[in-house]
């Protein structure tokens, strides 16, 4: 059974969740699978999702520039509660005024997508460095994931503006390189998982078997009820 492009992303997402759950035995197997690797793998998944979205938009003739500005504005409702947690947090590694939120808002106002990405990088670093202090005041790890995904979406959309006039086949080929690289990383994790759990946990072993995951995805997709489109 040959995996389709969307299958590769779904399998990567399942593998990512399993890797987070099984981080301790993975780290015991190899220091490769530390938090830095997990964050890197999460970013590659988000990048792949965004690339496929952009590819679809270009194929449908949609305006990427408008999508960039819309995605930038979607940061605003994420920034407002984050700012509240930053102001309430104790013992931050940087002063509140240097956390970077105002600079992000300024870049949104000026519609400067490239500058925005640089300012978002500062905010993401500051959240990472102060995550415990922020979550103590109510900030949720899930909201941080959404925030990072939005950054990758904006970056990908912005980089894709120049591709709008390219041949669709060129775009698909370029995206396939990234999707294939994601698939290689996924298969590496699955290989490690099989070596970790083969003789200790049969249920876990199945969670790290590519063909089983692929069959599960195909079955779930085929059995899902049709949902009418939202007008």
Uncertain ranges: 224-231
* Count of domains: 2
Mean pLDDT across the residues is 86
Instruction: State the major sheet.
Output: none
The SSE order reads HHHHHHHHHHHH
Number of helices, where a helix is a run of at least 4 consecutive DSSP H or I residues? 12
Q: Share of helix among residues?
A: over 70%
- Total beta strands: 0
Q: Whole-Å distance between the termini?
A: 35 Å
Strand percentage lies at: under 5%
**Shape from CA axes?**
flat
How do the helices and strands line up, and which of them pair or pack?
Layout: H1 5-21, H2 23-29, H3 35-59, H4 64-73, H5 76-88, H6 101-109, H7 113-129, H8 131-136, H9 141-160, H10 168-197, H11 202-207, H12 210-223
Helix pairs in contact: 1-3, 1-10, 1-12, 3-9, 3-10, 4-9, 6-7, 7-9
């Amino acid at each position: 059974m040959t995996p389709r492009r969307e299958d590769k992303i779904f399998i990567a997402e399942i593998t990512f969740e399993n890797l987070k759950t099984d981080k301790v035995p993975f780290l015991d197997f190899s220091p490769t699978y530390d938090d830095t690797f997990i964050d890197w793998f999460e970013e590659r998944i988000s990048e792949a999702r965004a690339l496929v979205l952009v590819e679809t938009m270009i194929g449908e003739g949609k305006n990427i520039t408008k999508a960039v500005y819309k995605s930038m504005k979607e940061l605003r409702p994420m920034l407002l509660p984050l700012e509240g947690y930053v102001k309430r947090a104790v013992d931050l590694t940087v002063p509140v005024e240097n956390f970077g939120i105002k600079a992000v808002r300024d870049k949104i106002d000026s519609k400067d997508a490239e500058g925005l990405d640089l300012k978002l990088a500062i905010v993401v670093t500051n959240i990472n460095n102060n995550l415990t202090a922020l979550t103590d005041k109510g900030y949720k790890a899930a909201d941080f994931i959404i925030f990072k995904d939005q950054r990758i979406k904006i970056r990908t959309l912005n980089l894709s503006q120049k591709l709008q006039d390219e041949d669709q086949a060129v775009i698909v080929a370029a995206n396939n390189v990234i999707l294939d690289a994601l698939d290689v990383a996924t298969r590496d994790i699955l290989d490690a998982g099989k070596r970790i759990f083969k003789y200790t946990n049969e249920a876990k072993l199945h969670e790290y078997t590519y063909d089983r995951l692929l069959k599960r995805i195909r079955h779930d997709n085929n059995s899902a009820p049709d949902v009418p489109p939202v007008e």
